[in-house]
Structures are given as C-alpha cells and as structure tokens.
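Data availability (excerpt). The following record was deposited with the supplementary files.
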Amino acid sequence: MIREIITYPDKRLKLKSEDIKVFDEKLHSLLDDMYETMIAKNGIGLAAIQIAIPLNALLILLPDEKDEQNKENLIEVINPKILEKEGSIVYQEGCLSVPEYYDEVERAKWIKVEYFDRYGNKITKECDGLLAVAFQHETDHLKGHLFIEKLSYLKRKKFEKEWKKRKRAKKL
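Predicted structure:
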C-alpha cells in the first residue's frame, strides 16, 4: 500500500525514532508499504518517519548501471548504527520530504554500519560513495534531522525563502 509522505516543515519529521523489538508480520507489512511508497515517489531511500511512523526502519535501493531499481538489490535496514566513518564526499542530495529541492551536502565518504534485516539477522556492511551518502541521509531521518540542516547558513536562508515562495505559489 502506498502511504503518504510527510513533508517539511511537518513537526513529526523532528521526532526521534524508536528501536524495533519485534520482527513480525506487522514489520514486514510496514517494510513492504515503504518499498511501494518509495518506488511510487521515485526515491532511492525512505525512512519510516517519512510516512509518520517513528520506528528505526529505512530502505535503500540505488539504481543499477542501467538506471533501474531492481527489488533484489533492496536493502532493508532495522535499528541501524554507524560504527565508523572515514573521508569526505560532497553529493547533491534531495529528499522525498523536501520535494523538488536539491543541494550539495558534505558527508563521510566511507562508513561501516550495523543493522538487522526484516527477520532479525544482524548485518555489518561497509559502504562508500552514494550508498554511504544514502545510509547517512536516511539514518539522519531516524534521529529527527533533514539534509537541509547540513546546509550553510546562507544556503539555508536561501532555501527557506524559496520554500516559502513555492508554498505561496501553490496556494494561488
């Protein structure tokens, strides 16, 4: 089922998500809905909080070399913890909760992350490049943060001005 994605400045996006303790059908259903929602909205990642569910669950599905998203490459992440970070990379990020806005954000180039899959199996994964960026972006959501918070003061002011102007234009 496709769920509604909450968007900035919805206060629920600031909530800290809770760890998942039970790996059951309810969780599987949530993950399946998140997948359908992410694909329907052309996203490469989605955190549960973006559909107003404050649980530590996120999905990442990067496009392959043919620019296609194959479900067998889907990464389902429960209760993630970033264990190590190295380097620096600047990437143009966007967000389903901040639609139609993109800006460059600096993040760690390489990370080591630990998480559980939908069945409660513990996984440790090393990520670099776009996968590392996506993991950091989505885990920020679980802590109540959006990528726009990483922008410089001037870029943030410019974003706020553009965002208000766009909201006014939509009301007309």
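Summary of structural features: Strands lie at 45-47, 57-60, 75-86, 89-95, 98-107, 110-116, 122-128.
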